[in-house]
Please model this.
Amino acid sequence: MSTQIYRALELMLRSSCCQTIRRRSCLRNAVLAPTACVPGGPVFPKRAYSLDSLGPGRPSLGHSLHHPGSERTSPSSALVHRNLSAAAVQGQFRPLCRYDYLDLGEVEENVRRAQACKKTRHFIVDPDLANVVAQHLGPDLQDSKSVIFECNPGPGVLTRALLNAGAQRVVALEGDKTFLPDLQEMEERLDGQLEVLHCDYFRLDPIGSGSVKAPTMFTDKLFTDLGISEAAWTDDVPVKVVGILPQRNERGMLLKTVYALFERLSVFRYGRIELNLFISEKEYRKLVSPPGEMRYYRAFGVLWQMACDIELLHKEPWESFIVSSRQSVPSSKGKFPNDHLCLVRLRPRADLFSAGLTPSNASTLLMMVKQCLAKRKVKLIDRLNLWSPDSGSKLLSELGLPEDILTGNVYPAEYLRLFQLMDKSQEFTQSWLYEEILENTQREGWG
Amino acid sequence: MEKLSQEKKNKLKKQQHLEQKMQRIVKEKPLGQSKGSKSSLMATGTSHKIISSAAKKSKADMKLSDKIYAAASSTTAVAAATSAKAAVAPKAPKPKQKDSKSKVSDKKAAKRATTEGKVKVKDEDLANVAELKQRLNQQGQDWTSLSTTDSPQDGSKGSLCGDIQLSIRSYLEACVFVGDIERSQSFLLSQHRVMSRRKYLTTDVYNIMMRVWAKRGMLNQIGRIFILLEEAGLKPNAGSYSAALECMGRQQNCSPKVIWRCLNKMREDGLSVDDLFSQCVFRQDERDMLLRAIHTVKPDYEPSLSLNASQCSSPLVQDFYTKREHHTYPKLDFTQEELQERFKRQLSVEEACTVTIDSVEGLKPITENMAKMREMLAEQRAQWHKVLLQALRESKMILAKTNTKAYKLDLYPYLCLLEDKEYVDIMIQSVTNMPPSGESLKILARDVGNRIYTKYCVRQKHQNQTVEKLGSIYDAYTDLLAKDTKVYNVLPREQWCKLEMEQHSGPTLQGGETTWPYILILELGTFIVDIMVKNLKINSDILNPAYDRKLIPILYHMYTFRSTRQVGFIKPHPILTQMQQEAMETKLTFDSSVMPMLCPPVPWTSVKFGAYLLTPAKLMRTLDGAMQHEELLEKCENLHPVFDSLNQLGNCAWRINKPILDIIISIFNERGSEKLDIPPPLSEAPKIPHFHPQDPTYTASEKAHMKREVINAKKKCSEMHSLRMDALYKLSIAHRMRDELFWFPHNMDFRGRTYPCPPYFNHLGSDVTRAMLVFAEGKPLGPKGLDWLKIHLVNLTGLKKRSSLQGRLEYGNSIIEDILDSADDPLNGKKWWMEADEPWQALACCMEIANAVRSPDPTKFISHFPVHQDGSCNGLQHYAALGRDVIGATSVNLVPCEVPQDVYSSVAQQVEELRARDAAKGLKIAQVLEGFISRKVVKQTVMTVVYGVTRYGGRLQIEKRLKEIDEFPKNHVWDASHYLVRLVFNGLKEMFTGTREIQDWLTESARLISKSGHTVEWVTPLGLPIIQPYHRTRNQVLKSTMQHINLQISHDAKERPDTVKQKNAFPPNFIHSLDSTHMMLTSLHCYSAGLTFVSVHDCFWTHALTVDTMNKICREQFVALHSQPILDELSNFLLHKYCSTIQTEARTKKYQEYRRLLLLLGKVPQTGEQETG
Model:
């Protein structure tokens, strides 16, 4: 308990330093902080240490106070201003604190390090790009109480940009050992806003057997270590994930994630985890394919659209990223262009589980949608009748859909309502569809 | 305009030319001049049309071929231009790239420097290259005798185009078969008219139509087809002339002049009359009609046929074929009459195509519920039969009406090949055999399609009137096999060929049926499955009257999802599954080829003829749709030793070991026994926990847990079901055969390993099935037979692996009490046999020993029991022998030793030593493993290392073994298996140094060959050509109404070879091919010594009496095989095959590659001292 008080004190102290700038937010921070962070874990010693270090850091803070006017005009430029002034005292030997500007590093050096990576990965090295991403995670990063998970930061350009933008708590999950020392060094220089873990976010919760060694990890271990507890679905977003989806198995990864979301497994046990991912343009277009687009409107997109608010935040050409392999630009076969990586925000809907859908019957919904959309040009009524003979037309009329509607023309929301109706009816729960689900929960489709 | 008129002129010229030609031909025709001119007019009409319409139709045709054989062409990657977008990107990467480039060039420079530094070495290389080239030139002539010398591209004439050609042929033949001449004629013409479609037509396709007209005696039509041939730029072949002459023969008053003209024309095309008789396949009375036509002009002509008696080129079997005076070929223990009787029974089985047999579950008492269910099912089936018949007829009508375009390959003729009822029977059969967890659409469709094809083949044989002839030849053939006839000095194949030649009139036995392309089989199958899914219904309240009555489908089409792919599945409704399971029906229906044969199989005499009487069988088992093997085999002139060996294996008669069968069935119908490998019935399966996912009283984690339980229970159930069904099939077949004598026809895989054709029940099966089989023929034990039985028994127990034979015999004698007890009271006694490695075979052996011991004179005891002699790790033996590796050879028993060496134990011992050392050093996992390293743990891995198992696979194998040890801590399995596989690999590397070198040479050769764009091919010392069917995958989509089926074809010889597979598979495949060669050699020589011999790959079986002789032959043949310069010959062959197109342009990259390949292939690994052990 004493540590908590200690911590609260620290935050109060700190907030008082910059009251003029962000009075409201800091207050909220001070009040909420102890509850948001569960005690335990390796976090606290650092925090305590950082309190001591506040002393020498103060002059620079004071310095920034001199420009309150510019602060109001535009937050981003203000940050830059402040940071620039912070940079002026950077040469002093002292642990960095949150308001110090972090040098994003020599581009050349970062490129070299990124390209040395043995696995094929994309990296953000361009400082401008990193800042753009950081802003999109905002708008008010310094206010947000969400923890940011940065997946595979590599040389850490985006990490620094996030911290510079005022992120309160960044967890860098790096899967490649070679990047760890530098990140850890940065972690040590900071007073606790950054935690570095040897963990590959995209290899969480492996399905196969065998011993689990870092960077592979189970979600519960990760979250327990970080002191993040399970939250109700309707609560605010507890964690924002930001990163570049590995190109090797984009679709499989996204499928695995959306299944986990519906059943509230993996990270989604801990609440509405928001994903901010760079995915290939091609895959993004499939993700947001509307009904009627018979070629690409598939279970994959329907499920995501049903579960999340999807927002395209930013488009960036492939060339802006550094790739650790020779083949830098993926081929674009198929209908969609594939010139960009798209930063997409996938924020799970708070009302997803409000009307009849529960994590336990969600697997049936998944199966239903997948069976329906395996072919898009079949009549929905035929599918329904297959599961429960003669009930198709009744259901369709309840939904207000025409009798001859094709499965590829039904909106995600309509599928959700269809499922809710089906789930209530006795006939469907007797159907083999329900049996099927049980067999397939093994999820060979996680790939 | 000018151009146009020019074109017209050209056309006219062409036409005139054609007309002239036609008139020339027509003049040769027998019909009156007036008719002739009429036909010529008609013909010119068509030809004119053809020329004018060709351009128009070409587009439509493209569509057609695309549509029907929508082979998704490999999508070429479109590289996006990077430079255009570089402006947006940071400039940083650019100089970087340059940097790396310059580095590369630096490296190149460095390389150049080093190569220049090694000028001397290079000179040597050059000398080598020159020498090799010379060698190639010299050998050129030697190799021409082998037919495999064509350039590799030739063999890949291939799949896609081949598929279309095959489809066209199959379609035409099907039309002709059902008598739909109009359809076939208009189809051929519409194909012919359009250039892009015409290119798929071959002379043989035109011949199909000629045959039809010949049957009807319509010479003018044949004349037209000759014109079409000429238009298409094709040359008439023997088949064309034979049809023309046959037609003339059929006409009562055909003028000799016409026949003469035809014969003259034929001579101009370089064909003799004898060629007709030797090259053509005759159906019905075609041959006689042909002869009649020829007799009208040459009354004395008799076709001079010679036996294809070219002697085998392999020195390994030269003596076998030339020096036969001491051979005593075995006779079968039957009279000729008995064999002929058996033939008739087998024939009737195969004519029916399916057999219905009693299930061994039928021996159980019938409960009330069972009776009820059986009755209900029977009722339903009758109903379904009616519904399906109706549906089939309707869809046929729709098909017939909708296809208005003559050129379209539709399914209609294929749906007329059989009686409607037969299609329905096939459908009902697949419903009955449907596993409760369903079947993927692709597999189901393939099975259905194959069934239709088999039936069609059998009917074709009837239509061609080959069945009668087969009967008469077979009757004569039995003379060779029967015990009551004279002793022959020829092999079965030779006798059969001789008989065929003697009885030359009538149809040829090898009907020349076209094998359907895989895609057609699938398409037809899907069509049939679609009818089933749409029409088979049942009342939902049939089992539970509480439900509302609705008509629900019993089969439904759905998808399962694997990774990002979706797989179409056909699943039975739970109601159907429940009914079928509860009814426990007493009858099982199989394809007739599943049953062993009731008479000795037809000897293989050619690639396309052998094994079953009517059911088609492949000489070489291949992937569905892979054609390259067959093409290669057909080009091969002399496969006699391979045929003879397969015939020898197939001629071994078997019977059931009834006491063992009865015990097994009793356990099977009780509760099964997992320990004894008798799968228990589903009633023994874990109950599937029942819960409602909606029930709010469960917490989330409880629900998750229960879900997992349910899944596990279901998985276990479906595993148990498939095991149970497999055992049920085997036992039921055995039960059916309990009083029979029977035969297993054999064929081989693409490396020459032999297999019995019937899939479920054969001597290659598990311990249980092997124990049920004994030789039909009995032989006295002789002086040493009883000892061999005892040694065999000890071998089956898995004990005393390191004892000498004498030691094993002594051990056997010391436990004679246990043996007798097991034999007398297997289930209630001391149950000694149950502890053996192979318990059922051990029990059978116990009984045999007991009977022998108790007989008045054991040496005269007639034993039917097969005694096995295992090769000890054949793969390593072959490597050791190839490398003349003395140490290695000793440890695999190639060098005679007092005590048999056991390589597995040696490796285990070595691994144990290393482990102890590591444990002493404090390595945790080594300490955990203390006391767990046994022969059994390492055996499989050691055995498969030579067959190219990787560390990954090796680890899985060891993991499996470790999991089987109950005491071993489960949490260490993964680490331990990792650790052990490393030790095993290191241990083997030390023991077999020569092996490594050869393996590496083979791998590297395959890699370079594959890199150069070729598929690895070789020829076994017996002359069997082998080709590795590993290529890059091509996707082909079959679009059916139900779903699109995506076929991933990895064996298409047109695609580039898959280098990784080609290289990894070459060493094991090569060793397998040697190992099969050795088996074939042994089998041939055993045959000439009059022994009964069968093999399970490297395990050879014979009577106890003849074990010593077999062992002697086996050893002699091993020595003989390895006295051949196998590696040198392989090197020569590969050099000739892949380096014969000598590249002269030095300095190009291609030349460098060529040179590297040349040098590598020429550099055979050094071998040890030239002694063979």
Notes: Residues 25-107, 113-119, 141-159 of chain B have pLDDT under 50 and may be disordered. The first strand of chain B starts at residue 71 and ends at 72. Chain B is about 60% helix and 10% strand.
